Amino acid sequence: MADSLFFTVLQVLAILTAVALFVSPLPDLRRIHMTKVIGEVSVLPLLSMWGCASIWVIYGFMTSSVFPVVVTNAIGMFCALSYIVVYWRHTTEKKYVMKLFTFVGFGLACITLYAVLAASGVTNQTNKQAGKIIGFVADAVNIILYASPFETMKKIVQTKNSSSLPISFCFVTMINCTLWVLYGIIDNDMFVLTPNALGFVFSVIQVTLYVKYKSSASQVQIENEARRVSIDIVTPKENDSFAYFKTKSPTLEPSPTTLAPVSAV
């Protein structure tokens, strides 16, 4: 009974942390919706979220893991599609976005067709056997997504500045991967366990880099503040021979987006 309760609590926590990851792009997309300007936000992480979540939904159905795998990633699919619609409405590169969307959609259609044929007995495979093949595909996609921040991590080591790392996102990813690793161990599901074990390692590395180079990032910010210049503008008043008021020149500084490839399983 205690083991069953623990497993249920673990599943619920895994879903909650996954949902936290799925809603992480929301501030960027809300800004896009309000300003109608895409800025530096890329559509690739959104398409990756949609594709990855969709594959895991198919895997969950084939392996009868409706809760939590299907439930979790169905939420991810809905979020990703909503984000993509908002992005597409305001982007100036609609043809490019539609081309990528079609490419990902075609891949998902092929996987879905294979799953339907397998479930219908056309491929002479059981659902479990077909689920294994789909699981390999899902793992490959997940591993690619988890490894994608390597370029950013390399830049952090070179510059000794971790300000570009979305630490909250990295920390939630680490917790999420931990929960799914535990789920994979208890449920004896290596397809869930493997990519999340790697995701845990990658997220730990990112958190470690943030902690190690945090002071350097703060120093860079202090130096940037020190470089700000005030301009004194002296203007005559009607009753004064000389009077002045002081205004500060505007300072434009880049602000990194927190949008990153998201995978919840």
From TrEMBL:
It comes from the Eukaryota. It is found in: Cell membrane; Golgi apparatus membrane. The keyword Cell membrane applies. The chain crosses the membrane at residues 6-26, 38-59, 65-88, 100-121, 133-153, 165-186, 192-211. GO terms for molecular function: sugar transmembrane transporter activity. Belongs to the SWEET sugar transporter family. This is Sugar transporter SWEET1. It comes from Globisporangium ultimum (strain ATCC 200006 / CBS 805.95 / DAOM BR144).
